[in-house]
Amino acid sequence: MQITFYGHASLGLTIGDTHILVDPFITGNPKASHIDIDSLSADFILVTHAHQDHILDVEAIAKRTGAVVVSNYEIATHYGNLGIENHPMNHGGHWEFEFGTVKYVNAIHTSSFPDGSYGGQPGGFVIEGEHKNIYIAGDTALTMDMKLIPMRTPLDLAILPIGDNFTMGIEDAITASDFVECDKVLGYHFDTFGYIEIDHEAAKRKFFDANKDLMLLAIGESITL
Ligand code: NI
Ligand code: MN
To answer: Taking 90 as the threshold, does the pLDDT of residue 130 lie above it?
Structure first.
């Protein structure tokens, strides 16, 4: 499984031959101006919640690529009404896709569309694919529900928000890493806006002192699990 960071909470996953984008917010992120959304492949687009900093480029990419939007019922239906193929889910449910299994799990956050309309309840994804399992938390507070994840799925990587203010910060992300029983963490949802700027070295040191590994990728950089 290859994972590419496209800035903010935007990710690209390659699992086998399948290309998956998560929460594409690229054209609205000045730090990601070197990423051309027309160059991105997508068979599926996973959307954690309806906030603009997670959906901005969903419509354009889905219409160009024909990607299937996977999200909660309200968000999937929203894109269905725009003529976009979609797969609705809801919390606690999982589905076996061609690339692996996706489960939509709880997040503590909100989920209105940019126009204020209802975007359902926010979530995260647990993805089991190609013998590697990852948890993409979405925007969330630290929540005890995270303890449920390793009861079903042993994780190889946890992708956690670390920017604070709108989501968990560093200390709570370290505790989240304990809750999901995964010491290997990719941080996201930081630095994009003034409210969520972090000190990278201090963040990495706090994880290191807790015997954990925090990865922070440059925008456009990839890792392989
Ligand atoms: Ni949000
Ligand atoms: Mn956000």
So the answer is: no
Domain extents in the chain:
2-224
Burial annotation 182-198 (CB, 10 A radius, 16+ → b, else e): bbbbbbbbbbbeeebeb
**If you classify domain 2-224 with CATH, what class do you get?**
alpha beta
Instruction: Enumerate the H helices of the chain as residue ranges.
Output: 52-55, 58-65, 73-80, 149-152, 170-179, 200-209
Q: Quote the ligand 2 centre to 153 CA distance (angstroms).
A: 25
Task: Identify which ligand lies nearest to the alpha carbon of 119.
Answer: 1
pLDDT tens string 38-54: 999 999 999 999 999 99
> Could you give the C-alpha distances from 164 to 93, 95, 199, 203, in angstroms and in order?
28, 31, 12, 12
| Residue 54 alpha carbon to ligand 1 centre in Å | 7
Smallest-distance ligand from the CA of 23: 2
Nearest ligand, CA 109: 1
Taking residue 62's Cβ as centre, other Cβ atoms within 10 Å add up to 24
* Rounded Cα distance, 111 and 123, in Å: 9
User: Helix and strand tally (H, E) in the chain?
Assistant: 6, 14
CB atoms within 10 A of CB 225: 17
pTM of this prediction? 0.98
Report the separation in Å between the CA atom of 154 and the middle of ligand 1, taken as the mean of its atom positions. Answer: 26
State the distance from the centre of ligand 1 to the C-alpha of 138, rounded, in angstroms.
Answer: 8
